[in-house]
Structure formats: structure tokens, C-alpha cells
Specification:
The chain is α/β, with parallel strands linked by helices and 189 residues long. It is built from six helices and ten strands; from the N terminus they run H-E-E-H-H-E-H-E-E-E-E-H-E-H-E-E. It binds guanosine-5'-monophosphate. The site of guanosine-5'-monophosphate has 17 residues, from strand 2, strand 7 and helix 5.
């Protein structure tokens, strides 16, 4: 997706060896018009695939998933990271090791919102080591639903997640794949 590549090259900041910051349009300030193009692109990539529900994880995935869901015309379910009185006791629970925070946390989805045999598309902002997608895949498995693929806005191709997920037979559609991030410069595959 050329417009996304352009935006990354103009606005993203590289932090350390492997973190890309796109707070200007995706992760803090949100450019809704631009997200609309991203949502449309996901719809195009998964054309012909029956999708009953979109699943993501709070917080950054929610905006992207909601805009994409308008094209798929399906509900969005987002996994929660913190227990609260608002959350049903009866949940599917999985774990994710966060790449950016370097800690492991639980993710939870109420059993009310995922049904057996539903066809679920996972959407997330970044793909690094693949733990977030695998955690969501586990929730889908526990619900006895089917994962039809993963739509990722930015895959970092120099990290192992994309390869591992594809080798596991998951259809991964990344709108851009970052090849290198050296000296603050981003190149794409
Ligand atoms: P993974 O689970 O694939 O290792 O990492 C994906 C998750 O970590 C995403 O949900 C995203 O929030 C976060 N993440 C991973 N790499 C980056 C990055 O370079 N920049 C930002 N902003 N988030 C990242």
C-alpha cells in the first residue's frame, strides 16, 4: 500500500533497533480518513472470504478494526487486557508476551461474543514476533470458532512473527512489510 509506505517514510520515528512509532496517525493521534483507506484495503485483500466477526486486542487495534468492520459489515470484538467488573466472569483467556512492554499479560474475551464455527478475521496494527496474533488465535480455538486470517497494518519483516504465522498455515495479509530500519531510515520489502 503505497500511501502507507509514504506516510511511514514521512512521519514514522524509529526507536532503538526494532520499534517503529507511528503515533502521528495510528497509535496515539488517529487519522480517521487515512484509516478508512486502510479498512478498505483490508476488505479488498480478504475479498471472497466469509467473515462473521473481526477480533482484535485493545487498545490500538480497536480503531483499525472498527473502521475495517464497516466494510465487512460485521461486529468487532476486542480482547481485554484487564479484569474489571464490566467483564463477564465466563471468558476465554489466553496470554500474550508483549514485544513493546516486554511483559506477559492475559487477554480475555467473554464467551458471549464468540460462537462455535464463527469465521473470525484478526486485525492488528503491528506484527513483530507474532505473539498477539497467536494469543488471539488461541481465544478463537477455545471458542471452537475458525480463524480465516490476520490483517496487519505494518509487519516488521526482520522479526520472526510473519514467517512463523505463515508457516503455521495462517493467511497473513500485511499492508506493508518493513525490511530494515537502520539509522532512522525505513525500507520496505
Ligand atoms: P507481536 O505480538 O507480533 O510481537 O507484536 C505485536 C504487538 O506489539 C502489536 O499489537 C503492537 O501493539 C505491538 N508492537 C510490536 N512492534 C511494534 C512497533 O514497532 N511499534 C508499535 N507502535 N507497536 C508495536
Amino acid at each position: 500500500m503505497q500511501a502507507l509506505k509514504d506516510r511511514i517514510q514521512q512521519e514514522a520515528r524509529v526507536e532503538g533497533p526494532d520499534v517503529l512509532k507511528v503515533d502521528n496517525f495510528l497509535n496515539h493521534q488517529v487519522d480517521v480518513n487515512f484509516l478508512n483507506n486502510i479498512g478498505q484495503e483490508f476488505y479488498k485483500r480478504f475479498q471472497g472470504v466469509i467473515v462473521d466477526k473481526i477480533l482484535t486486542v485493545e487498545a490500538s487495534g480497536i480503531a483499525i478494526a472498527c473502521i475495517a468492520a464497516q466494510y465487512f459489515n460485521v461486529p468487532v470484538v476486542f480482547a481485554k487486557k484487564t479484569e474489571s467488573k464490566n467483564l463477564d466472569n465466563d471468558c476465554y483467556v489466553s496470554e500474550i508476551h508483549s514485544f513493546t512492554k516486554n511483559k506477559t499479560y492475559k487477554i480475555m474475551v467473554s464467551k458471549r461474543y464468540l460462537q462455535p464455527h464463527e469465521r473470525v478475521l484478526v486485525i492488528d496494527d503491528f506484527l513483530a514476533n507474532g505473539k498477539a496474533v497467536l494469543g488471539l488465535k488461541e481465544i478463537i480455538r477455545l471458542a471452537d470458532a475458525d480463524m480465516v486470517g490476520a490483517g496487519i497494518v505494518i509487519e516488521k519483516g526482520f522479526q520472526p512473527g510473519g514467517k512463523e504465522l505463515r508457516q503455521a498455515g495462517i493467511r497473513v495479509e500485511s499492508l506493508v512489510i518493513v525490511e530494515t530500519m537502520q539509522n532512522g531510515q525505513v525500507t520496505f520489502r
